[in-house]
Amino acid sequence: MRCASTKQEPEIFQSSDGNLTLSVPIQFKRRAGRKQVTLPNGEPGLPRPWDTAATSLQLALARGHKWLAMMESGEVSTLTEIAKKEGIDNSYVSRMVNLTTLAPDIIDAILLNELPDHLTLFDLAVDPPALWDEQRTA
């Protein structure tokens, strides 16, 4: 992780293989023996309260990203391998990995626990539209 010493805007780099890298200039500062993140606009990042448990949707999103990373790293080559390794159903793995394709603002809403109450994990994970505008409409 790179730390920027001056305030800059986030940058996106595309490599020749099509992968994107997001560079967000943040700083880590020590405050009372703890590390604190300073955002590009100079504001301190607010830590997640310690007494707040992750929601099931947040945990599902984390699992999806973990399993996608396992595939991208070559640790496994298929979703079926992940399912066997984890001892769970292949369709569950597929649905959790689908969450990684959600629009960034939808992911933010999941992480901030700000989704409308009527939306469920099933609504988001089962065959989400490929286009982010269509995801927001749905």
Describe this structure in words.
The chain has helices at 56-73, 79-86, 90-98, 104-111, 121-125, 132-137; strands spanning 11-14, 20-23, 27-31, 34-38. It has 138 residues and is an alpha+beta fold. The chain has 2 domains: 1-47, no CATH class; 56-137, no CATH class. Strands 1-2 form a two-stranded antiparallel ribbon. The chain has a two-stranded antiparallel sheet with strand order 3-4. Strand 3 (27-31) and strand 4 (34-38) form a beta hairpin. Helix 1 (56-73) packs across helix 3 and helix 2 crosses helix 3. The chain is globular.
What's the helix and strand layout?
Elements: E1 11-14, E2 20-23, E3 27-31, E4 34-38, H1 56-73, H2 79-86, H3 90-98, H4 104-111, H5 121-125, H6 132-137
Antiparallel strand pairs: 1-2, 3-4
Helix pairs in contact: 1-3, 2-3
Give a quick rundown of the structure.
39% of the residues lie in helices and 13% in strands.
Strand order of the largest sheet: 1-2
Give a short account of the largest sheet: 2 strands, antiparallel
Radius of gyration: 18 Å
User: Low-confidence parts lasting 5 or more residues at pLDDT below 50?
Assistant: 1-7
Indicate how many domains the architecture comprises: 2
Number of strands: 4
Question: N- to C-terminal separation?
Answer: 35 Å
Fraction of residues in H or I helices: 25-40%
The 3D shape can be described as globular
* Beta-strand percentage range: 5-15%
Order of helices and strands: EEEEHHHHHH
| Helix and strand composition category | alpha+beta
Overall residue-averaged pLDDT value = 83
Structure annotation, total helices: 6
